[in-house]
Amino acid sequence: MMQELQIFFQSVQLEQYRTELVCCNRFSEQYGLSLSEAQMEQLAVRHIEALRASGRVEFGTGVLEKLVHAFCDSPYLVQENYADTLTELQELFYHLKTDCMERVSDDELVEAMQLIYNEAVHGDLTGLMDADRDTIYRIVRTGSLCSTLWEQESTGWNNE
Questions:
Q1: 30 vs 26, 43, 73, 93, 139, CA distance in Å?
Q2: pLDDT for 65-85, tens place per residue?
Q3: Which of 10, 45, 120, 138 is buried deepest, with most CB atoms within 10 A?
Q4: Which residue from 26, 118, 105 is spatially nearest to 73, judged by alpha carbons?
Q5: What secondary structure letter does DSSP report for 159?
Q6: Residues 102-115: pLDDT tens digits?
Q7: 25 in Cβ contact with 35 (< 8 Å)
Q8: pTM value?
Q9: What are phi and psi of 138, to 5 degrees?
C-alpha cells in the first residue's frame, strides 16, 4: 500500500513539474529557448531525483520556474544545451541550498547563482560548482562578486 501511494504521488509530481515546464516554455521562447516534450519529461524526472538525493521536499511550485526566469536571458545559454544546463542548474541549486543550511532564500540563491554564471564564470557550469557556502553568503550580503575568488572578474580591466 505504501509503495502504491508513493507511485501515485510521484506521478502527480511529474505531471505538476511538466505543467510548470510548459508554462516556462512560453516564457523562454522569447529568448529562443524551448524544451521538447521528451526533455520536459526527463527534466521532471531529474527534478524528483535531485530532490530525493538532497533529502528535500517541495511544496507548490518548484525551483525550475525560478531558474528558467533567471537564466533564460543569459548570453551563455543556447538552445543546444538548454535542457542539460537546466538539469545541472537544478541539481546544483539543491546542493548549494543544503550547503547553505537554509540561511538564504531560494530567490537569493538563484540570484547569486545567476551572478556567478553570467559575470564570473561566463556560462561555465564547472566554475559555478566552485561556489561554496561562504561565497554564496557574501554574494547575497553584498549583491556583488567583491571579496570572492571571482572579484577580478567583477572589476574588469577598466578598473585596474
A1: 8, 20, 9, 24, 29
A2: 999 999 999 999 999 999 999
A3: 120
A4: 118
A5: G
A6: 899 999 999 999 99
A7: yes
A8: 0.84
A9: -65, -45
Separation CA 32–CA 16 (nearest Å) = 24
Distance CA 10, CA 14 (A): 6
Task: Say how far apart CA 40 and CA 86 lie, in whole Å.
Answer: 10
- For residues 51 and 91, give the distance between their C-alpha atoms in angstroms, rounded to a whole number: 8
Classify 1 as helix, strand or coil. coil
User: Residue 82: its pLDDT value, please?
Assistant: 96
The pLDDT of residue 50 is 81
Residue 131, all three cell numbers: 561556489
Q: Cα(128)–Cα(50) distance, rounded to whole angstroms?
A: 17
Residue 116: DSSP 8-state: I
Q: Are 79 and 35 in contact (CB under 8 A)?
A: no
For the segment 31-52, the average pLDDT, to the nearest whole number, is 89
**Average pLDDT value for the chain:** 86
| Rounded-to-integer distance, Cα 79 and Cα 102, Å | 32
Say which residues have a Cβ less than 8 Å from residue 135's Cβ, sequence separation at least 6: 116, 148, 149
